[in-house]
């Protein structure tokens, strides 16, 4: 192949001319890819893809510039495409990890809440009968101390005592949940 043909592809690429183009330009194409990425393996892969594409499209390919310029532009495009796709993959991975962490946290929180709720119920069940009744009426039924005292026929002071005793018992038995 003469120099004119190397500058412009206006001829049919055959096996010999392809080998000549490859031998002349593979190093420059690799250099462009590597200098933009700083990674050897992806750069090698890009060189292979560029020359593979050149060979596969040899019959319909029309290049209106020098072969070298065409190959360098192809290399720059491959690098751009690689970086863009890498950023998309990294963002996708971050999103996956983030959603897994979030769903893990929800699951973990649900388990902790369920465990805490079961524990509180068990501790309330162990309270003395009158103390348990007063506490449930106050916390679960939302009754005031005066209403509880009236319903159970005890003093408001006794209601306060039972609530205080229940809360104290719960706090001392749930120390692992305190902040």
Description:
There is one protein chain. With 179 residues, the chain is an all-alpha fold. Helices cover 79% and strands 0% of the residues. The longest helix is centred in the middle third of the chain and has 60 residues, at 67-126. It is rod-shaped, with a radius of gyration of 38 Å. The N and C termini lie far apart (80 Å).
Helical stretch tally: 7
Task: Give the strand tally.
Answer: 0
- Termini gap: 80 Å
Shape: rod-shaped
Poorly predicted runs of 5 or more residues? 1-9
- What would you call the structural class? mainly alpha
- Percent helix: over 70%
Strand and helix order: HHHHHHH
Q: Which terms summarize this structure?
A:
179 residues, 7 helices, disordered N terminus, rod-shaped
Gist of the model:
This protein is mostly helical and 179 residues long. Helices cover 79% and strands 0% of the residues.
